[in-house]
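Crash report, auto-generated. Payload:
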Amino acid sequence: MTMGSGENITSILHEDRKFPPTAEFTAQANISSEAQYQEMWQRAKDDPAGFWGELANANLDWFKPYDKVFEGVMPNTKWFTGGTLNAAYNCLDRHLTTWRKNKAAIIWEGEPGETRVLTYQDLHREVCKFANVLKQLGVQTGDRVTIYMPLVPELAIAMLACARIGAAHSIIFGGFSAEAVADRNNDAKARVVITADGGWRRGKEVPLKKAVDESLAKSPTVEKVVVLKRVGWPVSMVPDRDYWWHDLMQDASSDCDPVEVDSEHPLFILYTSGSTGKPKGVMHTTAGYLLGTMMTSKWVFDLKEEDTYWCTADIGWITGHSYVTYGPLLNGATVMMYEGAPNWPDEGRFWEIIEKYKVSIFYTAPTAIRAFMKWGDQWPNKFDLSSLRLLGSVGEPINPEAWMWYHRVIGLERCPIVDTWWQTETGAIMMSPLPGITPTKPGSCTRPLPGVVPDIVSKSGQSLPDNAGGLLVMRQSWPSMLRTLYGDHDRFLSTYFGEIEGLYFAGDGARRDTDGYYWIMGRVDDVLNVAGHRLSTMEVESALVSHPSVAEAAVVGFPHEIKGEGIACFVTLRTGDGNDSLKQTLIAHVRKTIGALATPDVIKFTAALPKTRSGKIMRRLLRDIAAGREQAGDTSTLEDLSVLAKLRESDE
Ligand code: WTA
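Recovered output after restart:
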């Protein structure tokens, strides 16, 4: 979906089906009446200090109480100023004085099939030990630590150990390349990297340490590397720089006082794609982020002590930060973690896990749901899914067909589906059904949660009426909002608050229907959403032009059956016409520069790109070509019309 030249966006999706929660679900829900929601939402809007202040007192453990709930106006809001606390203490220590001490915090299954269970006590001990290891390596409060690991319990241990000593973690998804790791190490000025020899993915070892070695040739700030032995793959260890996790942990003490940090102390940096080629270091701070993830876990997932909760995201993405780790652990929940692929050794793996561990809450992405649909009902039908009571979706708009399949085949027509809209920048879920009360409509993330005041506006910032498509903005600050882009506050201000004066805007188009339900229509900037992962067209373009054969490149998204969006690249060469072997070379080059998740689906060689007279590439036209659509848009500013004709003729 893109913004046309007019003020509004035209919406084409119409969906009238409505699914109310069952009376049984409502009766036991954490938020169980419409009146309760209305009252919470209104109070949070009119008296945010009172609303969030009470929740912060009741739900977080403070070393020193805060003085003020918030100060300043958006974008420069600070939350819970003057207070001190510790994130790891709130996730772990406070449960140890209760019956939860021996409750399972993490139930983990490796792709090859091994199982590990860590109780809150176990997790606490490992976190304390690893926090001492970090200190021994010279990590101090305020430092940044890169984590580049497979989805194993040690990833959660490493992140909580950072939080325990007040060092900010910067986690990089294991699918990113060595170059991406180097860029992020340098931007964050990371002093230590925590990695593994490799991880398992579809029966193969993913070599992580090897990528770290390559990245370190370009990351001068990194002094030490800790390596977890996961796959037993041979790796090179540089003396006095690289250490085995198990060697360091052997003698580490399990006593480690949590460092008392300020509410606004940085908890982590997470890099995400924006409209330009350089990834943005989204920075979250401590108290507001913890409160946001804790409350939304309780409200949206209706978390109960007895639940076995499974969010399938990798911890390398924001969903894994907020809803595999911080949110559920703050609530003392039991978290299911699975290392590998959904189709290994066969397409029944996820359903087998649900049956085996009696998973009750399952949170995944539309791209995965579309793959499940394609693999066929026979896979889930083989397993007993009756333990499930709630389903969730995140990452991109869920198409009504996928929603209905999820509802029917996985939810057996009795589980509410929470379609949760949020972003790396928002830290926590912003809009979602409340499962006990909100009648759901397939494809809509329904209504804002308490404390979230969204609006739909035109490009000039005017509020638009119901059903008019426009830009989705936030009118009020919320505790888990990003505070800055690491090292680039100006970019933070211009990206999120520069578009529309005084309002938060992070790139989505949407409309609100007459029931007050929001329908996300997709990004309006140059950000692609490929399999629920954000990539900027510019990032892929700069990867392409860094290849010596390429003169110029333009990258656009196109509708893709499984991934939501596919990546189409229009490439002009320095010399020659291009051929299949060069296509393969360029695809490999992009994978090496960014990572496998950025693999181009289509490369088209062209003698010229369509440009305006002022030299701007007309991406709108390229999007039409990539999608195989007739050009509907205005081509009057196109410099050379013959370019278009040639592009449309040229075969794949
Ligand atoms: C999209 C992921 C529609 C949206 C948590 C947003 C969604 C971007 C939904 C953020 C949803 C996420 N419905 N679109 N339920 N959830 N998006 O930062 O375009 O990886 O701006 O955070 O994903 O992606 P991010």
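Post-recovery validation: The chain is about 30% helix and 25% strand.
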